[in-house]
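Title: Comparing notes on inverse folding

I've been comparing how different people in this forum approach sequence design from structure. To keep things fair, I'm posting one structure and asking everyone to reply with a full sequence. Here's the target:
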């Protein structure tokens, strides 16, 4: 009977404050959707790092006729056959070969062909000739974190214009993605504060509308915990609905946008799947319930002390 009475009181409170409950549901839904999006973005960044860092190469760019005299390795103009052979010997040698998984050489014609494919819709492609593009040794490492070994060993060789670790380009991309993720986290934090304040306000209004009933319950000896519980359940119920909606929105984003649309158009990387959304959903549910419980408990406790 005691549990039934508590649930009845909670149901009455939800019915009396239906508009405020809807507001709590919507604010909780929006704020937790931002939280879920931020978590998904971090998952996606981590997955992309694993995917691309494993494929990151070290590029050994050989000198061309237009490399310029500012690079002391290129004072003789384009790298000659002896210089190309010297770099290949270093890559095959006992010092560097333990770090290398494989490498291949790209000459002017191959570089030009790849350039034309990559920039086929760019007007600049019409002005580029094969001899302007570097001949390059592309190196895949066993451990991409050891790229500095190749950079230090090959950068000073005659005929080598530059040795570049592709991870430096990836780091710039991931820095932008991380900034976007942190922005989403900041917005989510603000929305969560708004949700907490709205839940607290809703509970205080609900208590105020039932102040005569609360006075009678006090007179008959009802404990504070018995009085507070229905109000806390009201907040938890509203937040629970918002959390479920947020979890559904995150799953829909992954299923319809990422897997259903984005994956077909960007096939150069891996993306988070529905299983990732199913990991995020319980987190949102827990955050919503805890947020509502603390906010409602704080609000009704303060009200009963007034």
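Reply #1:
Here's my take.
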């Amino acid at each position: 009977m005691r549990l039934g009475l508590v649930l009845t009181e909670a149901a009455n409170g939800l019915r009396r404050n239906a508009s405020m409950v809807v507001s709590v549901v919507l604010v909780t839904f929006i704020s937790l959707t931002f939280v879920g999006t931020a978590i998904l973005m971090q998952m996606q960044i981590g997955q992309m790092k694993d995917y691309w860092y494993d494929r990151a190469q070290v590029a050994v760019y050989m000198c061309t006729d237009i490399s310029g005299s500012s690079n002391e390795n290129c004072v003789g103009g384009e790298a000659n056959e002896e210089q190309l052979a010297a770099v290949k010997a270093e890559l095959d040698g006992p010092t560097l070969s333990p770090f290398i998984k494989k490498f291949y050489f790209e000459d002017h014609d191959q570089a030009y062909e790849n350039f034309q494919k990559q920039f086929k819709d760019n007007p600049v492609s019409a002005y580029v000739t094969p001899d302007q593009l570097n001949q390059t040794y592309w190196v895949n490492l066993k451990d991409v974190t050891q790229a500095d070994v190749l950079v230090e060993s090959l950068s000073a060789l005659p005929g080598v214009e530059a040795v570049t670790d592709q991870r430096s380009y990836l780091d710039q991309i991931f820095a932008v993605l991380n900034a976007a993720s942190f922005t989403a986290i900041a917005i989510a934090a603000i929305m969560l504060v708004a949700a907490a304040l709205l839940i607290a306000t809703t509970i205080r209004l609900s208590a105020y509308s039932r102040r005569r009933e609360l006075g009678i319950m006090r007179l008959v000896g009802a404990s504070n915990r018995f009085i507070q519980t229905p109000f806390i359940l009201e907040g938890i119920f509203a937040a629970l609905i918002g959390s479920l909606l947020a979890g559904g929105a995150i799953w829909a984003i992954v299923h319809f946008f990422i897997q259903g649309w984005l994956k077909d158009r960007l096939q150069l990387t891996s993306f988070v799947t529905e299983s990732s959304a199913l990991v995020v959903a319980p987190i949102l549910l827990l955050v919503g319930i805890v947020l509502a419980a603390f906010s409602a408990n704080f609000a009704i406790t303060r009200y009963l002390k007034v």
